[in-house]
Amino acid sequence: MQSNPIQQTGQTQQPQPQASAQGAGGSPAGGSLTTQAMGKDAFLKLLVTQLEHQDPLDPMDNTDFVAQLAQFSSLEGITNLGTSMDRVAGKITSMSNLFSSNLVGRKVTAAGNAFTYSGSPVTLAYSLSGGATKVNVTVHDASGAVIRTLKGSGGPSGDYTVTWDGRDLSGMTVKPGTYTFNVTASDGAGSPVAATTYVTDTVTKVALTGSAPQLVLGGNARIAADRIKEIF
Q1: Boundary residue ending a domain (68, 101, 134)
Q2: So what's the pLDDT on residue 33?
Q3: Is 227 exposed, middle or buried (0-12, 13-18, 19+ CB in 10 A)?
Q4: How far apart are CA 167 and CA 180, in angstroms?
Q5: In whole angstroms, what is the distance from residue 43 CA to residue 71 CA?
Q6: Helix 62-101 to helix 33-52 angle, to the nearest 10 degrees?
Q7: By percentage, how much of the chain surpasses pLDDT 70?
Q8: At 185, phi and psi to the nearest 5?
Q9: Which domain holds residue 77?
Q10: Does residue 112 sit in the same domain as residue 225?
Q11: How far apart are CA 185 and CA 162, in angstroms?
């Protein structure tokens, strides 16, 4: 009787499906969609071959068969989910860029402390996280030097504003340009109260750099779109 070439020493060798089957070029599956498709075909081919050459007296265990199919289905599902999430992320980025571009020419109020002085009084806004009895607003020039200290309004937590007339400590009008301001506040016991500064300016353009678009204001200050508090 002629022996089956698949059998050796009376037992059937059953080729096992491999999750990382290689394509014709020798590259492992998983890198690209083409390679992943080749990996799927190779898996099914190996599985069919295994079923065709199994020993009738010792057939393949159904539990192992189902487990192999489940493993492959899970791997394919994870791959498809990753592809879908990439597409969703791409659409969200496109929508964010479109929203930001619509703000060009609009005036916005956003968290920040850099503003442009063009010769007219400037309204500086801030928000107190708690009640404060003492509030100081300091204006700095481009070098960081303090050029004016203003007394801000205290009170319960909420939004406040103070107007700077463009004059320095000596009463001289400063030159137009970009300036910054900081707010320090404390309560009746002298404990510090957190304050957030806001600037209001016109969006001149949108910089699509990094992971999120940056809004460029009139004084070339850049802010993230998620820091906008109001749009006018």
Answers
A1: 101
A2: 45
A3: middle
A4: 14
A5: 11
A6: 170
A7: 63
A8: -140, 155
A9: 15-101
A10: yes
A11: 14
| 88 and 187, same domain (yes or no) | no
Looking at 83, 101, 119, which one is the last position of a domain?
Answer: 101
Task: Please report the pLDDT score of residue 214 as a whole number.
Answer: 86
Amino acid in the structure at residue 79: T
Tokens of 54: 């199994």
Residue 83 token pair = 């592809």
Say whether both 74 and 134 belong to one domain: no
State pLDDT tens for residues 74-112. 766 666 666 666 665 555 566 666 677 888 999 999 999
Distance of alpha carbon 112 from alpha carbon 217, whole angstroms: 11
Q: Is residue 92 helix, strand or coil?
A: helix
**Same domain (yes/no): 72, 154:** no
CB-hemisphere CA count at 13 Å for 105? 2
List, for residues 119-134, the tens digit of each pLDDT value: 999 999 999 999 999 9
**Predicted model pTM:** 0.58
Total length of the chain = 232
Rg from Cα positions in the chain: 34
Q: At a CB cut-off of 8 Å and minimum separation 6, what does 111 contact?
A: 196, 197, 198, 223, 227, 229
Separation in Å, CA 35 to CA 19, 20, 24, 58: 12, 10, 9, 34
What distance lies between CA 83 and its chain's CA centroid? 18
Domain count, the chain: 2
Q: For the chain, how are helix, strand and coil distributed in percent, rounded to 5?
A: 25, 35, 35
Residue 215, both tokens: 């809004």
